[in-house]
Amino acid sequence: MLKTRIIPCLDVKDGRTVKGVNFVDLKDAGDPVALARVYDAAGADELCFLDITASHEGRGTLLETVSRTAEACFMPLTVGGGVRSVEDMVALLRAGADKVAINSAAVADPALISACAAKAGRQCVVVAIDARAVDGHWEIFTHGGRKPTGINAVEFAREAARRGAGEILLTSMDRDGTKSGYDIPLLKAVSSAVTIPVIASGGAGSVADFAPAVLEGGASAVLAASIFHFGEATLAEARAALAEAGAPVRSL
Amino acid sequence: MTRVALIDYGSGNLHSCARALAAAAGDAAAIHVTARPEDILAAGRIVLPGVGHFADCAGALRAIPGMVDALEEAVLRKGRPFLGICVGMQLMADIGLEDGETPGLGWVHGIVEALVPAPGLPVPHVGWNELMIPAPHPVLAGLGDKPHAYFTHSYAFRPEDQGEVSAWTDYGAPLAAAIARDNLFGTQFHPEKSQRLGLTLLANFLEWTP
To answer: Is B122 an interface residue toward A (CB < 8 Å)?
Structure first.
């Protein structure tokens, strides 16, 4: 049986992890490679890097970070943030990313999804959707959540899947950072609209929040950041909570 | 020292495979990333990576002059241990059905066909799934209880002879997770991304005497 993936997500800026991480006695908690090793050893099912570097010059640093991470651990690595073209995707894949998450650029030009899937295969293409409830539906916001688009998130998820997305990374902007749990109705609406895997993101506040995302929301994977980084929960506790609630997890 | 040829035909997981093989080999084997048929003939073991699209991969392999002949000489006639990973395993089939019919190498009879989405079972099949090993095989030794490996694929290999399936996984129905016959071995999952299980499997392959 396929198991629920638990995916820690690191925000990376100019090659350093930001938002602070204080869950272990690392000499350098800002080094994403060291953190990747820790999560690898703790049995993360996958790792996600979100590059929040504002400058284009920072991309070289990111590629180097991806490459050092890929050398340090043997688990799937998804990298996103600022991917605007097939060339950006290819550069990340060459550096050692297994999948690339595309967000704003895919919303602005959905043909980018098809082009990326044609180049690297759909299993490499994760379409990241940031959505917020607006007037009775979920609207996509881009550019780090600052820009409303008027686009319906469920409709766009369907189009992304049709165009060759391999997975949807679905972030609830209403819940992100609130620690009040994932947005189950949003997850349910998207996961029932597509036949590709949906990764739940935004709102995890305790390990008890993971199982509903899977069992009620239909998510294939749960992504979380601060809950792991700040030591509020370990991966082992997350696995145990999922298993307890009846969501299958990997035994290590 | 054993020389392991890792075939460079543009596959996206080439570097991950090289890193994982090197980590699994330690000082026991030299990993040689190559696109030259003469290197295949000179190698003690051969690994064919693969990710993405069956037809693209088959086309890229055949586009290297002399590569398929060299592979058949080394693998089928000289019996050198061969490992195919993901699409590298699928290429051993007779035919792949991804966007039309594409001939494979025809080393293991069977076809590669699409997974069909079922309620609650999205496609691609992405993530860690359990391996069920019907009979011990040296390449699958020491993987522990309830071994899990990382899969990501939309197409699956359906061999004619189910006796050639060395590991199954369940995704709505049993799927071939690994294929073995004589000196041939293939994994649908990605050992290079399967943490400790993957490195154990690769180390086993590097020591395997079929």
So the answer is: yes
What is the predicted pLDDT for the residue at A22?
57
Please give the residue of chain B at the shortest CA–CA distance from A120: B52
Interface residues of chain A, partner chain B, Cβ below 8 Å? 1-5, 40, 43, 45, 70-71, 73-76, 93-94, 96, 98, 120-124, 166-167, 194-198, 218, 220-221, 250-251
Q: Which residues of A touch B151 (CB under 8 A)?
A: 2
* Domain ranges for chain B: 2-207
Asked if B48 and B10 count as a contact pair (C-beta separation under 8 A), the reply is no
Active site residue A130: yes
Known catalytic residues of B?
Answer: 86, 190, 192
For residue B155, the chain A residues in CB contact (below 8 A) are none
CA of A190, closest CA in chain B: separation in Å? 12
Residue B58: band (very low, low, confident or very high) from pLDDT cuts 50, 70, 90:
very high
Report yes or no: B48 and B84 within 8 Å, Cβ to Cβ.
yes
Mean pLDDT, residues B115-123 taken together: 89
User: Is residue B125 within 8 angstroms of chain A, CB to CB?
Assistant: yes
> Residue A251 falls within a domain, yes or no?
no
Residue A20's pLDDT band, with cuts at 50, 70 and 90, is: low
pLDDT at position A28 is: 66
DSSP code, position A176? T
Cis peptide bond N-terminal to B191, omega within 30:
no
Residue with tokens 């993101």: A201
Provide the domain count of chain A. 1
* Residues A98, B146: C-beta atoms closer than 8 Å: no
Kindly indicate whether the domain formed by B2-207 is annotated with CATH number 3.40.50.880: yes
What pLDDT, in 10s, does the model give residues B193-207? 999 999 999 999 999
pLDDT of A23 higher than 60:
no
Q: How far is B120 from chain A (nearest CA, A)?
A: 7
For B125-171, the pLDDT digits (tens) are: 999 999 999 999 999 999 999 999 999 999 999 999 999 999 999 99
Please state whether beta strands A77-80 and A99-102 pair in parallel, antiparallel, or not at all (unpaired): parallel
Q: Would A153 be classed as within a structural domain?
A: yes
Q: Are A220 and A247 in contact (CB under 8 A)?
A: no
In a domain, A180, yes or no: yes
CB contact under 8 A, A197 and B122: yes
- Mark residue B203 as left, alpha or beta (left: phi above 0; alpha: psi -120 to 50; beta: remaining): alpha
Rounded CA separation B56/B62 (Å): 10
